Amino acid sequence: MADPLAIGVAASIVLVVVFFSSLKGTGWSPAEDISEEVLERRASTVPETDFPEPMNRSIGGGGGAVAVGGGGEGGEGGELEEGGAEESAGPGDIPDDEIEYYEVEFIKEGETVELANNEPILDQGEEQGWDMPYACRQGQCVSCSAHITDGPSEDYVVHDDQQMLGEAEIDDGYTLTCVAYPRDSFSIETGESP
Ligand code: FES
User: Hey, what's the signal peptide range on this chain (predicted)?
Assistant: First the structure.
């Protein structure tokens, strides 16, 4: 004979199990994705900087270097302009109202002409239509050399940075016509080398 008490207990357990199993589960739902929000919030806390981001730093750095270099160049340019003005104050830089003329006898050409003191002998000889010898036109060779027969060439001309003639050659009257500016009257033989 079944024990009524046991039957009651078993029925209670079954009811409890049925009750709980009939309850709706809460289920699982993924948490809201807040990663973007977190990132934005973090980004907003990073202070703005004046310098470029690391990736751009090399480029920006380069640009900076260029800017600095550019500034330097600008500065140098300014100095160069000033220095250039000083450097360009050569024997030919004579104001128009201060230009003087000297009578120069070109022995081989058989003519005496007036030469200005602000232009090289070579240029002024060419302006006469003479075929004057030359190569560099910068005082760096001796192609244009000529001989001033009156004495040391630098008593009669000023050389603008000639590099080729020695003191003895200048004393002998040799000159480089491409960089020689008249400072007195004289006679000259073109195409004469030391
Ligand atoms: S042409 Fe070269 S020194 Fe005059």
Answer: none
Contacts of 74 (CB under 8 A, 6+ apart): none
Strand ranges in the chain using DSSP code E only, listed in sequence order: 101-106, 111-116, 145-148, 157-159, 174-176, 180-182, 186-190
The answer to whether the CB of 178 is under 6 A from ligand 1 is yes
The better pLDDT of the pair 177, 38 is held by 177
| Pocket flag, ligand 1, residue 107 (CB < 6 Å) | no
- The span from the CA of 136 to the CA of 83, in Å, is 24
Identify the CA nearest to 170 among candidates 145, 135, 136, 191.
Answer: 145
Cα(46) to centroid(ligand 1), Å:
68
* Ligand 1 touching residue 126 (CB < 6 A): no
Express each pLDDT in 4-61 by its tens digit: 666 666 667 767 666 666 666 566 667 777 778 877 887 777 666 555 555 444 444 4
